[in-house]
Amino acid sequence: QVQLMQSGGGSVQPGGSLSLSCAASGSTFSYYCMAWFRQAPGKEREGIAAIRTGGRGEWYGDPAKGRFTIALDSAKNTLYLQMNRLKPDDTAKYYCAAGQCAGSLLDVNEYNYWGQGTQVTVSS
User: Fold this and answer.
1) 56-61 long-range contacts, Cβ below 8 Å, gap at least 24?
2) Tally of CB atoms within 10 A around 54
3) DSSP helix/strand/coil, 75
4) 120 CB-near residues (< 8 Å, 6+ apart)
5) Does the pLDDT of residue 95 top 80, yes or no?
């Protein structure tokens, strides 16, 4: 089993920045990729950014390109998401996830371990 504990998030004005962290514990050898997803009220969960644990590249969904950066500290088993130039449309609950990712790294079905979620609100 893998446990994912999220921290960070909160409220910010448009154009501001926030960061999220996700600390993994347990059987951390059992997954090969990690990702951030988000879900706004009434919408499906969408992939924002993903990374392979072996450090072989990063993937970003269209909403994140050029504004968000995903990073993994393997020594600490901690995943990060730095979010810059935030917009009201970025308001959602953000989740970290871990999985084996045989297919698309931004596909929610590739992940079987999930964090508890943390709210990000962008509003003036």
Assistant:
1) 59/105, 59/106, 61/106
2) 10
3) coil
4) 9, 10, 12, 18, 20, 38, 83, 86, 90, 91, 92, 93, 94
5) yes
Amino acid at 75: A
> In this structure, are residues 95 and 36 in contact, taking their beta carbons and an 8 Å threshold?
yes
- CB-facing half-sphere around the CA of 106: CA atoms within 13 A: 15
Is 50:33 a contact under the CB 8 Å cutoff?
Answer: yes
Encoded tokens for 112:
């079987």
Q: What tokens were used for 123?
A: 């509003």
Cα-flanking dihedrals φ and ψ of residue 29, to 5°?
Answer: -80, -10
Residues with Cβ within 8 Å of 106's Cβ and at least 6 positions away in sequence, in order, are 35, 46, 47, 48, 50, 59, 61
Closest CA to 58 of 72, 39, 37, 75: 72
The pLDDT-based confidence of 103 (bands split at 50, 70, 90) is confident
Q: Could you tell me how many helices (H) and strands (E) the chain has, helices first?
A: 0, 11
Q: What mean pLDDT do residues 104-122 have?
A: 95
